[in-house]
Amino acid sequence: PKGGDFSKLTVEAVSRVVTKINLRPRKRLGWKTPYEVYAGVSVALMC
C-alpha cells in the first residue's frame, strides 16, 4: 500500500508477488503470461 514500509518485506514475500504478477495473462501479450513470452524469446534466440 501507499506509504508502506518496504524495509520490513522479506525476499520471499517479494519473490511471491513478482511470481504472481508474472503468471498473470496479459491482453497486450495475446493473453500469454510474461513468463511464456520470455520463454519463447529465449528459445528463439538459442536456435
TrEMBL record:
Name of the molecule in the record: IS30 family transposase
Q: Name the domain of life.
A: Bacteria
